[in-house]
Amino acid sequence: MKKTLLLIAAALIALLPATAQGKKGKKFTHETVAIPQVEKQVIAVETENSSLVLLVHENGRLETTHYGARIAQPAQFLKWRVKTDDYNGQRGNTFPVTGGRYVGEPALHVKYADGSHNTELYYTGHAVSQKDGCVTTVIDLKDYVTGLQVKLVYDAYQKEDVIAQHTEILNGGKKPVELLSYASASLYVDADEYLLTHCHGTWASEMQPESELLGHDLKVIESRRGTQNTQGNNPSFLLSLNTKELSETEGEVIAGALAWSGNFRLSFEQDDAHRLNIIGGISPFASAYPLAAGARFETPEMVFTWADNGAGGASRNLHRWARKGGVYGGGEVNPTLLNSWEGAYFNFTTETLLRMMDDAAGMGLEMFVLDDGWFGNNYPRNNDDAGLGDWEVNVKKLPEGIDYLAQYAHGKGLKFGIWIEPEMVNPASDLAHAHPEWVIQSPGREIYQGRHQWVLDLTNPAVQDFVFGIFDRTMRLAPNIDYIKWDCNRVVQSFGSPYLGAQQDRFYVEYTQGLYNVMRRIREKYPEVIVQCCSSGGGRVDYGALRYCNEVWTSDNTDAVSRVNIQYATSFIYPACIMAAHVSAVPNHQTRAVTPLKFRFDMACTGRLGMELQPKQLTPEERALADRCIGSYKKYRDLIFKGDLYRLVSPLDGHYYALMYVSEDRSRAVVFTYALQYEARTVGGKTIRLQGLDPSRRYKVTEQNVDKSCWWGDGGAFGGDFLMGGGFNPVLKTRYSSAIFLLEAQ
Length: 746
Ligand code: DGJ
Fold this sequence. Notes:
Elements: H1 2-15, H2 18-21, E1 41-46, E2 50-56, E3 62-69, E4 108-111, E5 122-131, E6 134-142, E7 149-157, E8 162-170, E9 177-189, E10 194-202, E11 205-213, E12 219-223, E13 236-241, E14 253-258, E15 264-270, E16 276-282, E17 289-291, E18 296-298, E19 302-307, H3 310-326, E20 337-339, H4 341-344, H5 350-362, E21 367-370, H6 401-411, E22 415-420, E23 424-425, H7 430-434, E24 454-455, H8 461-475, E25 483-486, H9 507-525, E26 530-533, E27 551-553, H10 560-573, E28 579-584, H11 597-604, E29 608-612, H12 620-642, E30 644-649, E31 656-662, E32 668-675, E33 698-703, E34 717-719, H13 720-726, E35 738-745
Parallel strand pairs: 20-21, 20-29, 21-22, 22-25, 25-26, 26-27, 27-28, 28-29
Antiparallel strand pairs: 1-2, 2-3, 4-9, 5-6, 6-7, 7-8, 8-18, 8-19, 9-16, 9-17, 10-11, 10-13, 12-15, 13-14, 14-19, 15-16, 23-24, 30-31, 31-32, 32-35, 33-34, 33-35
Helix pairs in contact: 8-9, 10-11, 11-12
The structure holds (2R,3S,4R,5S)-2-(hydroxymethyl)piperidine-3,4,5-triol.
C-alpha cells in the first residue's frame, strides 16, 4: 500500500513543470534563516517638547509610531495597532530597506556579492547615553542572512527640540558589498495634508522658496553637481502638516536639513494610507559605494525639528541648535567689514587697498578683506582666466606683500582677511602644468571649463595636502590673518578621478569627504580664524560646511531687493549669524537696480553687516549715513547673532517685508520693516504685530538712523502686549523706504 502511494506521488511529481522539480529533478527546497524573537518595547527619542516614538515588535521589526508633540508616557504605544494591512511593508517603517516586503523608496539598498539586492533589518539592541544637553540613542539592527549591521544614531538636543540622525553601516559579511542607497535618516509622518516648502535657485538668485501640497507621486529634491550643491536646490525643507498654507505662527511644522556639501537627495513618498516617508541623505547618483568585508560607512547627519507654532517656531529651533554648536563659532559676533571685490575687482595696487582700509576704518568698520586678484606671477591673476592654483603673491600689484597690508590694517584697528579658492585651477597656471593628474577629468574627453577653470581632485590625498597647504601658507603670509574667504566657483562636470582609477563610483562621496578632511585639519590648526564659505555666492549653504565655517556668502547678487527673498528664505533653516550681507554700489553691478543707501544698509543690517564698494565713490552725505548705520548696527547686532528671529511679514507677494530679532531674556529687540512697492493709500501704514516680546514689560522704541521717525510712537515706551496685540504701524509709503527700530525694556 505504502509502495503504491509512493509510486503515485512520484508519477504526479513527474507531471509538474521542470522548474518546480528543480533542474536535475530534485525537489524544490528553500531554507529560511530564523529571526530571533526580542522583547516588545518602546524606544522614545525625546526633546523637551517633542517625541519620536519607535516600537520594537517581538519579531524584531522597528516601527515609527509617532513624531510630534511630546508624549509623557510613550509606553502607551506598546498596544499601538494600525488597522490597515501592511501588504507593501511601508507602514511605519523606521528605516526602509530594499528587501523583504518593502517596495517603496529605500533609505538603504545593498547589493551583495552573489547579486542579491535583499536586506531585512531586525532590532538587536539599543543604548542611550547623555552629554551636554544631548541624549544619544543608538539602535542596532542586523540582517541575519548577510550579516550586514546598521546603527541608527539619534542625537536629541533637549532644549532646542532638534534631533540629528545619522546611520552607520557595517559590512559584517565575508564578501564586499555595494551600497546603492545609504541615506542618513528616514522620518515617518502621519497627517492629512503635507505642504512642502523648499528652496531652489541659481547663481545670483539662490534660495527661492517654493511651496506645494504633496501628492502621491514620489517627490525628490536632489543635487548632482559634485560641488556648489546649493546653487540650485538646498538640502533642506519645511513640512507644514494639515494645512494648505505656510504659517509663521500656527500649526505643526517639521523642518529638516542634511549636513552634507556633496550631492544630496531628499525624497517624500506617501504610502497606500497617505502616510509620508521622508528620506534624506547623500545622493546615490553614480555612487554605488563599495564596502569591503568588515568595513564601515558613516553617513552625514540629517537634522530635523518639530514645532507646533508654525514655520517660525521650527526655524527658531534650528537656529538655536546652530548657534549652540551646529555652526562653527555659532552665535559669536563676527566683525563688520569692507570687502574689496565690487569696489576694486582685479584692478588694485597696494595704494588702492591702503586707501580702502583708511575709509573702512574711518566709517567704523572692523575688518578689511582682500578678495580675488592678489596672486599669480607667471600667470598673473588680473582676470578670472589665469592664476588659480599659483598661490604666491603677485609682486607687480603688491610688491610690499600681504604682510605689509595686514600690518597696515591692524595698525588702523582693522582685522585683516583674504580670499582663496583652493579647490580650483586655471589651465593657465603653473599648477595645471605641474600636476595635470590632479585635475578632475575623464580619459579621452574634453575637460569642460567654467569661469575658465577646472576642479582639483580632492579624492586624492596628495591634493588634499595641497589644498590644506594653500590655506596654511596663506595664513602664514602675515602673522595675524583673521579671516579667510573660501570660494568655489565651479561645478563638477564629466567627472573622473585619475586617482580612483576604475573605482569612479567612490568619486562623489570621497570628494566631499576629502574636503571635510582638509577642513578638519584646518580647524585643528586654526581654531580662531573666521572662515566664510562662499561658492559663487550661495553654492555651499549647508550644515555640513557650516561645521567648519562661521558664515556663508548667500549670493553674488548684492542688490538689496534681490536679497530680500534670498535672506528671508535662507532664514527658514539657517540662523542670521551665518548670513554675510554687504552694502554695494548703485546701479547694482548684478541687477542695475538703484535703491536708496538707507534701504541697502537696512537690508544688510539683518545679517553680518559688510560693505563691498569703493568708499571713495560715496558722497559726504552718504558717508555720514554709512557712519551712522554702522554705529547703530553695533548697538543691536548682538540680537542678530544671538537672538531669536520672528518673520513678521512675508515678502513673497512683493509688497512689504518685516522681521525682528529678540534677545533670549526678551529685554531687547530690533525690528526691520521695508516697503518693496509704492503703497499709496493701501498698506503704507500697515499694522504689524510684533512677536516674542514679554507682554508684561514696557519697551522704549527708538527708530535708528533717521532724524525724523516714520512712527508716531517713536521715543515712547509701550507695553509688550500693545506692540504684539495692538499696533505698531510705521508709515512706509514710497518704494524702498525702510525703518529699523530698537526696543529696550524699561
Ligand atoms: C565669486 C564670489 O562669490 C565673489 O564674492 C568673489 O569673491 C568672486 N568669486 C571672486 O572671483
